[in-house]
Write a structure and sequence with these properties.
Length: 403
């Protein structure tokens, strides 16, 4: 590993040296390594576009507990960013056992840190493991395995969000969507870098993944105020959806967030296929797990006990959400705005008709197939509204139609 910064301009050397001195003074660092573009010498400063490559530092400590001291590393990172100024600063922290284990198992991100990095500080109390040289086939197998695990895990969280949303559990759904987005980002990072950072900040993860492939540049958009608001709602879900009773998300917001995370999944799959193909060629990649579809996890929830008004109202709200998603999905497939509106309205009417039949049967009203079909084919909105109200009070099918 190199030890000099002679390839950098004087002001860059001063900033990096000052950051390393800060970390050495305030943390139990055993080694501090500069890696990434400033170590390689290909950093970017695009003043016109406002893009600046990060100062990337790997900090190696002696124990896992030291590496997991989040309060310490948050404080030091904040102070390091003040030194960096307009240059972002990223501190990655690992204990020596984990770092050496990753090198021995062939994770090429860690090998690159050692091979391309610049050693800024060394306590000389530990020795780094020798990097294992991997064949392209071994690299592909590891990257495929990482992608499959994290992508499929993300898929299940996305489906879980639909399950919770369908039952009116907004915070549960939002947290599940956050976990889905986080895991999709992890899949990308592991394919392209072999590294999964210890952060739950989806904004930071989006920033790290965007340069890896053109498909990822527009993921989870924040181009207008509404996009930015919903992204913030999703970002905050990791903490607030679990611990804050004031966290609130509507059915419509969840539906939009689910579509955004699904779009992220599809972008990730395209990007990762390209990343895997770059290792050994597209023919060697084979089939990859598929993204979920918008229609998944939108089944009608079971009707709760009719003597629980709050649960019934939650159930009714879930029907509205489901019809909204079904209709919007149908309209999107139609490919134009008129189709969107028609699909939305058709989905609402279908859900209402299904709900009427469900309520009657759960109340013990005997419905023949003919009676049920008569309701299910009804598409007149005013008639459906009357039938919906009567479904809660009618004592027979005859009374339903007579009324």
């Amino acid at each position: 590993m190199r030890t000099g910064l002679e390839h950098l301009p004087a002001h860059k050397r001063e900033q990096i040296t000052a950051i390393a001195a800060l970390v050495q003074a305030q943390t139990p660092a055993e080694m501090i390594v500069l890696f990434g573009s400033y170590a390689r010498g290909n950093w970017v400063e695009d003043i016109a576009q406002g893009y600046f490559s990060d100062f990337d530092l790997m900090v190696i400590v002696g124990t896992e507990a030291q590496a997991n001291d989040e309060m310490l590393w948050a404080k030091v990172s904040a102070e390091a960013r003040l030194i960096g100024g307009r240059i972002p600063v990223t501190l990655l922290v690992h204990d020596i056992k984990q770092f050496n284990r990753e090198i021995r198992t062939g994770q090429y991100f860690y090998s690159d840190v050692v091979n391309e990095g610049v050693l800024l500080y060394d306590s000389r109390r530990f020795v780094l493991a020798k990097a294992k040289a991997q064949t392209p086939a071994e690299r592909l197998e590891l990257a495929r395995r990482n992608f499959s695990y994290w992508f499929q895990s993300a898929n299940e969280f996305w489906r879980g969000a639909g399950y919770y949303a369908g039952r009116g559990l907004g915070p549960h759904a939002a947290f599940s969507l956050h976990q889905a987005a986080e895991r999709y980002f992890h899949a990308v990072l592991l394919v392209f870098t072999g590294y999964k950072p210890k952060t739950h900040d989806i904004e930071a993860l989006a920033k790290q993944t965007a340069p890896l492939h053109v498909e990822l540049e527009g993921a989870l958009p924040r181009t207008d105020p509404e996009d930015e608001r919903l992204f913030g709602l999703l970002k905050r879900a990791y903490i607030e959806a679990r611990y804050s009773k004031s966290y609130h998300v509507t059915a419509e917001e969840l539906a939009t967030m689910r579509r955004s995370v699904l779009d992220l999944a599809e972008r990730v799959r395209v990007a990762c296929h390209a990343g895997l193909s770059s290792i050994s060629g597209a023919a060697a990649v084979g089939s990859l797990p598929l993204s979920p579809t918008q229609e998944e996890s939108t089944e009608l929830p079971s009707l709760p006990a009719l003597d629980d008004p709050e649960a019934v109202e939650t159930w009714r709200a879930a029907l509205v959400r489901i019809s909204y998603e079904r209709g919007e999905s149908a309209g999107t497939r139609a490919g134009h705005e008129a189709g969107l509106r028609a699909g939305h309205e058709a989905g609402q009417r279908e859900a209402r008709a299904l709900a009427i039949v469900d309520v009657l049967r759960r109340r013990g009203i005997e419905l023949s197939d003919e009676d049920a079909n008569r309701i299910l084919v009804t598409r007149d909105e005013s008639l459906l509204s009357r039938l919906w109200d009567l479904a809660w009070s009618a004592t027979s099918v005859a009374e339903l139609w007579r009324s």
